[in-house]
Amino acid sequence: MTIGAVLLATLACRKFGSKGRTAPKVVPPTPIVVKTAPKWPLPPSAKVERVRQPQMGTVGTFVATPNPSPEPITGAIVPTAHGPAPATFGFRAAEAAAPIGAGDHFLVLARPGLWLVESESMATVARLVPNASGDVASSPDGKRFAYGACTRKKCAVHVREFPSLKTVVEVPVKSVSRLRFSTDGKLLAVSSVRHETATVVDVSTGKLHELSCGNDVNDATFIDTAKKWVAYSTDSDATVIRNWETKVPIFDSTGVMHSALGRGFDQNAVAYDAKRDVLFSGGNDDSVWRFEAVSTGAPTLIRYVAFGNDVEDIALLPNGDALVGLDSGTVSLLKPSGKIRTALGTPVPLISAGARLALDRRGYLLAVLNSAVWRWRPGDGLATRSTFFEPVVRFDADYTQSDVVLTANGRGAGFTLVVLRASLNPSDPLDVSTERLGTLKFSTHSPRTIAFNDGTRLFVGDGGNGKLVIYRLPLGKKLGAAKATAVPYQFMQRFVNADGNRIGHQAGSAVAELNATGERILGTLKGRERLQWDTKEKDWRACTFRKCRELK
Hints:
Layout: H1 3-13, E1 49-50, E2 58-59, E3 74-79, E4 87-91, E5 94-100, E6 105-110, E7 113-118, E8 124-129, E9 133-138, E10 144-150, E11 155-161, E12 167-173, E13 178-181, E14 187-192, E15 197-202, E16 208-212, E17 217-224, E18 229-234, E19 238-243, E20 249-252, H2 256-261, E21 267-273, E22 278-283, E23 287-292, E24 300-306, E25 311-316, E26 322-326, E27 330-334, E28 340-344, E29 355-359, E30 365-369, E31 372-377, E32 382-385, E33 395-399, E34 403-409, E35 415-423, E36 432-433, E37 435-442, E38 448-451, E39 457-462, E40 467-473, E41 483-488, E42 494-497, E43 502-507, E44 510-515, E45 519-524, E46 530-534, E47 539-543, E48 548-550
Antiparallel strand pairs: 1-8, 2-32, 3-4, 3-36, 5-6, 6-7, 7-8, 9-10, 10-11, 11-12, 13-14, 14-15, 15-16, 17-18, 18-19, 19-20, 21-22, 22-23, 23-24, 25-26, 26-27, 27-28, 29-30, 30-31, 31-32, 33-34, 34-35, 35-37, 38-39, 39-40, 40-41, 42-43, 43-44, 44-45, 46-47, 47-48
């Protein structure tokens, strides 16, 4: 039996300790013929960037490990108008997903763009838009999709037909946080966190109805298009229903949730069940609230159900159940009775993972959990994850004009960091794989990265014996081994930049110089003296507020 088969068998047999939690069914992968083009012909005028080698999805239960994988990661090089380098490296991290067409494809908004994915194989087919941002949503019939596109100066919402990719409408908005179509696909609700607005767009005409909400708007959905009612959730601990044409408030829950819990919390998500006339709201109070008789204009708060994490998104099943995406990177199933069970994912400790949910026409859930993309069928628990989109990785980036070096916590305890490098001038900027250079090991605290004019980098930190340990990385070369030094280490150490070719290091009264090839002890400070570089004499000095002296 192969290692992969053993792992799959282990996952399939794993039992969860929490009461009521059941693991999604895990099935062994079968050979899949991955096509390099969509099943439908793209029109000659469509601007589509082909993916050279689409990847088959993997089957599994777990979303991520507590720490990012030390393996090389993929992403893209994105030009920048400002910053430390002419371009930056962006992980291919998913932010939202939406079904499209008859159910055989779906869209993924991921830095840096909008991607088309085959549903069954989870194979990435093409990159449709290079600069999509904010959110992606599709009309209920799957014939149209909308996405945000923002630059430093302006933002717009684009609505396109599928599969022709023909532009239906493009409208300017202040910013894009969430997008939701009406049930007939004729209207689009745009939420804006940064500009505190909820905007309704008439897809046919491009006409805008903007509601100024006085607080960050995290989500908005339609209640009754005939009455022109839209509901939105805000950071003021409120779920509000307003007429988007007259702007008259219909219902405002301000104070209701606050009085129930004794304090206010941001509300992140809303969802409306028109069949049962029920409005759901959830947020940083770790709860989902249920309002009934919404169409009367005076909803009744029936109950709230507490979860263990912030509620990020809510998707409603036809039978009245609610799927709740949590900040832990998991999805829970909420029954009308208030019963909860974990549906998908494994909590990621100490990481704000987030969740975005969407249901397709075949009853599958598309879930973006911890920046990875999952497709899950509630009926039999089949869970499939794409290998094309990277789980979130927290990293420090250091740029030169030609490359970027990334350091991130690796697996295991302690201060072990993985070092990765990517070129800022690759042959294919949309498909870049980082080079793994090695690992850094320190006794306490995260290291400091120092860059010199020639591109050499130093990673300096606690060697465990009260002395500084240094790893050197010359530009374009391999990572050097750890070098123990005679330079003292101190938690509150101070670094002084001289001229780009040398760095002063002050640990208490002991001072030293670090450069691209070595280090040297400078001497000892007295009293309140601090290390300072003398630009005229091109040398280090020990200085107080009034005078400086030569170091000995």
